[in-house]
Amino acid sequence: MSAVETITRNISPLSLRSGQTKESSESIRYRYEHLLPYFAQDNYPPLTPFEHIDPGSRALAYPNPRAFLDNATKVTDLTPNLGTEVQGLNLAELDSTGRDQLALAVIAPNTRLLSFGS
Q: Which of 1, 24, 80, 83 could potentially form a cystine with 109 if both were Cys, beta carbons 3.0 to 4.6 Å apart?
């Protein structure tokens, strides 16, 4: 015979208590309220589909995809994964062809295609 006995008892619901009254807890502001997320009520029109052409892929059509580096005073290939340091080239003065070539160099720095003359 087993010696198990089941005892049931009604327990009152638990509630959290603090030393503050309801009025005083509402008047205290959260110390880090300025860090809480903010959700703006802005409404934007629905997105419209468009055709995207990657600038780097346009540079593949050029005979020399690194031609934008011809005017640079110093080009140092750091590592295959880290990239290339370019000195003496003002990126603001690049034409659309040069910007396309730069985009290809940025997205694919360690490809065989970009290592001309190495």
A: 83
Q: pTM of this prediction?
A: 0.48
CA–CA–CA angle 108, 112, 117 (5° rounding): 115
User: Structure tokens of 80?
Assistant: 């295959």
Task: Report the distance separating Cα 65 and Cα 116, nearest Å.
Answer: 9
CA angle 116, 55, 51 (to 5 degrees): 150
Residue in this structure with the two tokens 């638990």, named with its chain if needed: 14
Q: Give the pLDDT confidence score for residue 43 in this predicted structure.
A: 92
Domain positions in the chain? 55-114
- What mean pLDDT is predicted for residues 37-61? 89
- Mark out the alpha helices in 1-118 (DSSP H runs): 22-27, 55-59, 96-107
pLDDT by residue (tens digit) across 86-104?
A: 888 888 999 989 888 888 8
Length of the chain: 118
Three-class secondary structure of residue 50 per DSSP: coil
Rounded-to-integer distance, Cα 2 and Cα 60, Å: 83
